[in-house]
Amino acid sequence: MHAANRAKQDEYYTRLEDIEKELSYYRKHFEGKVVFCNCDDPFESNFFKYFAINFNFLKLKKLICTCYVGSPVSHTKLNDLPLFQKNQKLPYKIEITEVSDMNGDGAVDLSDIEALLRSDNNNLTILDEDGDFRSEECIEYLKESDIVVTNPPFSLFREYVSQLMKYGKKFIILGNPNAVTYKEIFPLLKANKMWIGVKPWSEELYFNVPKERERWLVSNKKEGSAYVIRNGQVLGRAPVLWYTNLDIDKRHESLIMYKKYSPDEYPKYDNYDAVNVDKVSDIPEDYEGVLGVPITFLDKYNPDQFDIVGLAPERGRFVLQNKKYENAVQHNSDGSIQSGNKVNDGPVLAFEEKPGKFPYYTADNSDKYLQVLYARILIRRKHEN
User: Fold this and answer.
1) Which of 97, 247, 257, 347 could form a disulfide with 285 if both were Cys (CB 3.0 to 4.6 A apart)?
2) What's residue 255's pLDDT?
3) Residue 6: pLDDT band with limits 50, 70, 90
4) pLDDT of 89 strictly over 70
5) Is the pLDDT of residue 124 over 50?
6) Does the pLDDT of residue 83 top 80, yes or no?
7) 9 and 132 housed in the same domain
8) Same structural domain for residues 162 and 285?
9) Looking at residues 71-83, what average pLDDT do you find?
10) Handedness of CA 167, 171, 173, 177 (dihedral sign)
11) Residue 145: how many CB atoms within 10 A of its CB?
């Protein structure tokens, strides 16, 4: 039941306008390449639509798209094809190596793609396995591909990225912003094996969702928070970033720094050898040591300008943390107390007097009042040659 619930929550379909906007920055990478969309029902996926319509413009060599058998929308547009048995959902694959003006209207659009698939020489075939990106069959298509582009299940994001890395694939994928702190993902960001795409961190995206999910959102969630209604359609709201390992101009844009370092404005952490920076725009231009910056820094990260030293916390491995608090206690605004183990889950600022914000912490091996901050990326400025 939990697995089924996660599957329903993962069914967020990226809108064509958002795909077009992001992928316009990667056009130079596609010429002569095999593109694989391995988490997409072709006639529901806007990734398939984008690449099928732009097949000739992008000068693709081949487009491969596979459909998972459990997709709640699979076969809703092609269920009259003889290949499919009535009312039976089967996983299938589409391969396209050539797109032409099938209906002779002077333009290539989705009607031409559908005509191609309905022709005697169509490239739609039933898969032997279930269409899961982890299946041996789909892995063989992955090996054949050059670039993977899709919106993978967020609940399987770690495993999905691990597979891409294992087979050395280029990719443009969507993922949760908090994925930057995953112990499986952050080392890849640190080592410049993947990075944030073009869409600004702060820009929100909205997604098409199945009808069942629409009803659930309206019944259980607050409009404007988990969903919005536009032109009578319910669109799911989810924080997302584009992740890629294809080079983009944004990655080489230098962050303009104008502030000067002062100990009062940039206090040192009590448990890390670094100073705190609350806003990316406040990074001082003249500090030579390690800076702890919000994770949104990765949206502005230029590897020619900064080195990523680490993450605070490093998710259970106290590599850079130089102090672990003993018998910590959390003090809440209502006067209650509870276990303060959370103080070891992030960078900590120490105060001589009780801070005005709650919660704060105390510990046996500290004589100060402690506050734990959200995760920080630890960076060091590079010197210009």
Assistant:
1) 257
2) 95
3) very low
4) no
5) yes
6) no
7) yes
8) no
9) 47
10) positive
11) 22
Pick from 66, 62, 38: which is nearest to 51 by CA?
A: 62
* Residue among 314, 324, 302, 285 nearest 377 (CA): 314
Task: In whole angstroms, give the CA distance from residue 240 to residue 6.
Answer: 17
SS (H, E, C) 337-373: EEECHHHHCCCEEEECCCCCCCCEEEECCEEEEEEEC
Per-residue pLDDT, averaged over 346-362, amounts to: 94
Can you state the percent helix, strand and coil of the chain, rounding each to 5? 25, 25, 50
The better pLDDT of the pair 321, 44 is held by 321
Cα separation, 298 vs 376, in Å, equals: 11
Per-residue pLDDT, 181: 93
Residues 32 and 181 in one domain: yes
- What b/e readout covers 189-213, taking b as 16+ CB neighbours within 10 angstroms? beeeebbbbbbebeeebbbbbbeeb
In this structure, the answer to whether residues 85 and 154 fall within a common structural domain is yes
Distances (CA, A) of 372 to 154, 320, 330, 344: 27, 16, 10, 8
Distance CA 79, CA 83 (A): 9
Query: Per the structure block, which two tokens stand in for 20?
Result: 């077009």
pLDDT tens-place string over residues 263-309: 999 999 999 999 999 999 999 999 999 999 999 999 999 999 999 99
Query: 50: part of which helix (H) or strand (E)?
Result: helix 46-53
What are the b/e assignments for 44-80, b being 16+ CB within 10 Å? bbbbbbbbbbbbeebebebbbbbbbeebbbbbeebee
- Token pair 């370092």: residue: 261
Residue 275 — φ and ψ, nearest 5°?
-105, 155
Q: What pLDDT score was predicted for residue 5?
A: 41
Please state the domain count of the chain: 2
**Across residues 302-323, what is the average pLDDT?**
85
Distance in Å from the first CA to the final CA of the chain: 58
Residue 264 domain boundaries: 254-385
Alpha-carbon distances of 133 from 49, 72, 151, 152, 177, rounded to whole Å:
20, 16, 12, 9, 22
Q: Pick the closest to residue 308 from 292, 287, 286, 284 (CA basis).
A: 292
Tokens of 262: 């002062």
Does residue 370 have a pLDDT over 90? Answer: yes
Amino acid, single-letter form, for residue 128: D
Query: What rounded mean pLDDT belongs to the chain?
Result: 87
Q: Are residues 270 and 285 in the same domain?
A: yes
| In the predicted structure, residue 378 carries a pLDDT above the cut 90 | yes
